[in-house]
Design a protein that fits this description.
It is built from three helices and no strands. It is mostly helical and 66 residues long.
Length: 66
């Protein structure tokens, strides 16, 4: 009978083999609970951020990509 550690290692190895490293990380990320209240934090950010500031940030990001 496998120990919990062995099962964890075997499971991670199977995921990596089947999905690749990036896919494995994305898959495991689905099960992260995180902490805090995303909706409340997002609303606070939106409330204190002017539309002009968001547009300027978007322009800067586009310029960096080119």
């Amino acid at each position: 009978m496998l120990t919990l550690e062995q099962i964890r290692r075997e499971g991670l190895e199977a995921l990596r083999e089947r999905l690749g490293r990036a896919g494995m990380i994305r898959f495991l990320g689905q099960f992260e609970n995180g902490d805090g209240d995303y909706v409340k934090e997002r609303q606070e950010w939106v409330d204190r951020t002017a539309l002009a500031e968001i547009r300027m940030s978007t322009r800067r990001l586009k310029q960096k990509k080119t």
